[in-house]
Amino acid sequence: VFEKAAPSVVYIDTFVEQRDAFSTNILEVPLGTGSGFVWDERGHIVTNFHVVRQAKTAQIAVLSKVFDDADENGLSIKATNDSSINALSSPATSRRNDGGVVNFSRKVYKARVIGVDPGKDIAVLKIDAPVSDLYPIDVGTSKGLRTGQSAFAIGNPFGLDHSMTVGIISGVGREVKSPTGRPITNVIQTDAAINPGNSGGPLLNSSGKLIGINTSIYSPSGASAGIGFAIPIDTVKLIVDTLIRDGKVVRPILGISYLESKQARALGIEKGVLVLDVPTTSAAFKAGMRGTNRTESGLIDLGDIIIKIEDM
Q1: Which member of 35, 64, 163, 199 is catalytic?
Q2: What is the per-residue pLDDT across 152-181, written as a single tens digit (0 to 9) for each?
Q3: DSSP letters for the chain
Q4: Is residue 162 annotated as part of the catalytic site, yes or no?
Q5: pLDDT digits (tens, 9 = 90+) for 135-155
Q6: Which of 86, 161, 196, 206 could be joined to 150 by an S-S link, Cβ 3.0–4.6 Å?
Q7: Catalytic one of 117, 121, 191, 304
C-alpha cells in the first residue's frame, strides 16, 4: 500500500512575510508544514484549507523517480526523469527492491492557490511540474465503508515526511467543525495515528485507494489519542472538481434569519417559522419577504411566517 501511494503524497511548507527588524527588507518566515496529494497530471494538489489559511506563499515537495540499471561490468548507469528549472533536488529518500531498483529524489516547487472551500476545509493548489514528476493518487469511494475495515494514513507528522500509520475505521457519519465553524458531516473516524503535520494527507483503504482526507483529531494533548477524522472522498471529489473549474464553491442560501421554535411558541406561533431578519442584499428580500422588528412604542411587529415551501 505504501509503495503504491507514497509517490502521490506531497510535503507542504508554508511561509509568511515579515519585515526584518534591522532593515526594510521583507523576509519569508516558515509558518508550518502539512500534507497533501497529487490530484491529476496537470499539477493540482489537494490539501486542507487550514494548512494554507494564513500562508502568504507555499512550497510543495514531491517524490521523483530515478531509475538505476546495472551494466555488464556491474557499473551503475542512472537515468533521471526530466526536471523543472525551478525544482530543487535532494538526495534519494526511498528505495524499492522488486527487480529494477527505483530511487525517489525530492523536488520542491513553488505553489499557487487555485481555490479554497473553508466550509469543508479543502484547498486546491497547483505546481508547474513536469508530468514525469506527478503521480496522481488512485481515487476510490467512501460509499459503503464499514466500521472495522483497515485504514492507512500517510503524511508528514512533526515534519517526518512520508510516514504511514495503520488502523481501522472506527466509525462513519461523524460530524466535526470546519475552520469557519460550520459542521462537516459524514466524516470518517479512524484510530490510525494522525498527528500535527498529517493534515491534508490521504486516508487509504487496503487496496491503496483514497477514501478520505485526514483533517483533524480529538485529543486533550494535541497529539494522537486514537481518534482521528477524515473528510470522505465522495464529498471531496465534487468540491475539488468545482474549485478547479470555477476557483470557488457557491452554495445556495435562504437569505433569512429565523426564530427557534421554542422561542416562537412563546410568541404564540404554533405552526411555521418566524422570519427575524431579511438582509437587503439577499434573494429573500428581493422576493418581498419581511422580517420582525420592534415599533416605536416598543411592541413587536411580527414578520412573515413560513408555513410551506412549494408542496412540502
Answers
A1: 199
A2: 999 888 878 788 999 999 999 999 888 888
A3: -HHHHGGGEEEEEEEEEEE-TTSS-EEEEEEEEEEEEE-STT-EEEE-HHHHTT-SEEEEEEEEEEEEEE-TTS-EEEEE----TT-EEEEEEEEEEESEEEEEEEEEEEEEEEEEEGGGTEEEEEE---GGG-----B---TT--TT-EEEEEE-GGG--SEEEEEEEEEEEEEEE-TTS-EEEEEEEE-S---TT-TT-EEE-TTS-EEEEEEEE--SSSS--S-EEEEEHHHHHHHHHHHHHHSS--------EE--HHHHHHTT--SSEEEEE--TTSHHHHTT----EE-TTS-EE---EE--STT-
A4: no
A5: 999 999 999 999 999 999 998
A6: 206
A7: 121
